Amino acid sequence: MKPIRTRGRPRWRLLAAAGVAGTLSAVAVTYGMPYAFADSLLSDTFEDGNSNGWSKSGGSWSVVTDGSLVYRQSGQSSDARTLVGQTTWADYGVQARVKPTGFNGANRHVGVVARAQSSSNYYALVVTSGGAVQLIKRAGGDPVALGTGSAAVPVGNWATLRLDAVGSSLRGYVNGNLVVQATDSGFSSGRAGLATSYASASFDDVEVATVTGPPPTTGPTTGPTLPPTEPPLDPGAPPIGFASVNALGQNGTTGGAGGPTVTVDTPAELLAAISQSGPLNIRVSGMIALPGPMHDVTSDKTIVGVGASSGITGGGLNIGLPASDVTSPPADAVHNVIVRNLNFRNTVDDAVNVQMYSHHVWIDHNDLSLGYDGLIDIKRGASYVTVSWNHTHHHTKNMLLGHDDSNAAQDTGYLKVTYHNNWFDRTPQRNPRVRFGEPVHVFNNYFVYNTDVGVACQLNSGCVVEGNYFEDVEVPWSISYAGSRGRLVARNNVLAGTSEAGDSGGTVQEPSTYYRYSVADPNTIKSVVMAGSGTGKIGL
C-alpha cells in the first residue's frame, strides 16, 4: 500500500505511533462520537487487500470482495476472534460495519470487541441469531450478557456497530442509535477486535478512536445527541447558502418535491430514474456499481441513499448538459437537483460533476473517496450550489470550482457556491481550488492535514473564508496558488498546528447580500463536523 503523505510523514507511521501494528488502510464511513472525540487510533477498510496487523484466533479469516473488499470469517464450527492494536488502549470506541452471513444454531453471535486482554478475555457488542443486541463480557469461559437491547440485524444485511468503553461505562450503538449500556470494571484496557461465535460474517470500515468525558444524556432508545448546528433531520429541510437563493427562475432547491418516489438497487434502475423527465425522488438502496465515467442527471431530482451504507461505485453523476463553449445559459440548463446521503467510491472520473450553467444544486451529507479525478467539481458556468456536511477523504484532487485558466468567458459572473460544515480529511489540494467565481463562501468547515493548500482562490475569483477550523494544514488559504491571483477575505478562523495562514487581500462580495446565515464558533467546528458530516446522519 502506498502511504498517504501527511506533512512529510507517511500516514501509516502516524497510526503505528499510536499503537497500530502493521500497515492499515483508512476508514470510509465514520459515525459521530457519543463522547468527546480526541484522536484516531486505527482505521482499516481492507481496500489494500490484506489484514496486516490483525492477529487471528479460530475460524477462517480472509479479505474477500463483497461489493468492496471486506474482512470475512467464513467458518461456523467454533468461536473466532481477530484482534488489533495495543493492550494499553483504555478509553476508546471501536466501530465497524458488520454483516452476519450465517448462524450455526441458537444463541450465536457476531460483533465488535473492545479492551481485549486476550482472545478469551474481552468486552463485545454483538448481534445475535435471535434478533437481540448484547453487551457481553468474556473472562476465560462462556460469554456473560451484561446488557441486552433490541435491534435485529438479519442475515445478509449490513449494520454499523459501535462499542464505547470509557471508565467502567460500556455503551453499544447500532446504526448510530444507543441500544444497550452497562457498567463493568473487569477490564480497564485492551486491544480492539472482531468476533463471531459459531457464525460467519463480513466486516468492513473498522475505526478505533479515543473518547473521553461523561456519556450523553440521551436515553437508550433515542440515540446520541445531534451536533448543535446540524440542520433538522427532516429530509425535506431546505439548504443553507446559494442553493437556497431565488434566482434564474428557481426559488431555492427542492429536488424531486411533488413527484413520486422510487427505490432503486440495480444499475439499470438507477440510470433509468436519473434520466427520467419531471420531478422524482430516487432512493438508492445498497452500493450500486455503475459503468464509467459519468451519467447524466435531469432536472428536478432528489437522489438520496437509504441508511449509512448506500451509494455508487465506479461511475459518477453528471449534473449538466454536455460540455460546450457557449457563453450564455441554455434554456434547458439542468437545475433543481439534490444529492444526499450517498457513498461514492472508486469513480473512474468525477464522483459528482456540476457543469454547463446548471444551477440550484445541493450536495449534502455524502461520503466521497478514492476517485480518479475530482470528488465534487463545479464548472462551466454552473451556479447557486451548496456543498454541505460532506466527508471527503483518501483522495488528492478534492474539489475544483472553475474549469480552466482560459474559461473566463463562460465562468465570470457564475460559480456562486457555498461550502459549509464539510470535513476535508487529509485531502492534499483543491479544498476547493477556485477560478473566476464570486462570491465563493467557505465557512464552518474542518480542514485537517491538507498537505498542499486548503482554499486556493485564483484568477480574479472572490472568496470569503470564515469560521473554519484548520488543523495542521500546510497553507490554509492562498490568492497566489499556481501564480494567478484572486481575492480573499479571511476572518475568524482557527489555525491549529499551522504556522502560516497564507496570503489574502482584495475586496469580495459579501455572501450576506444573497442569503442569511450564521457562523458557529470555529473552536467547536472540529467536533461538530466530525460528528455530523457524511452519511447516516439525516434520518433516511
TrEMBL record:
Keywords: Carbohydrate metabolism, Lyase, Polysaccharide degradation, Secreted. One of its GO terms (molecular function) is hydrolase activity. InterPro entries: AL/BT2_dom (IPR010496), ConA-like_dom_sf (IPR013320), Pec_lyase (IPR002022), Pectin_lyas_fold (IPR012334), Pectin_lyase_fold/virulence (IPR011050), PEL (IPR045032), TAT_signal (IPR006311). The keyword Secreted applies. It comes from the Bacteria. PANTHER family: PECTATE LYASE 18-RELATED (PTHR31683), PECTATE LYASE 21-RELATED (PTHR31683:SF18). Belongs to the polysaccharide lyase 1 family. This is Pectate lyase. It comes from Micromonospora pisi.
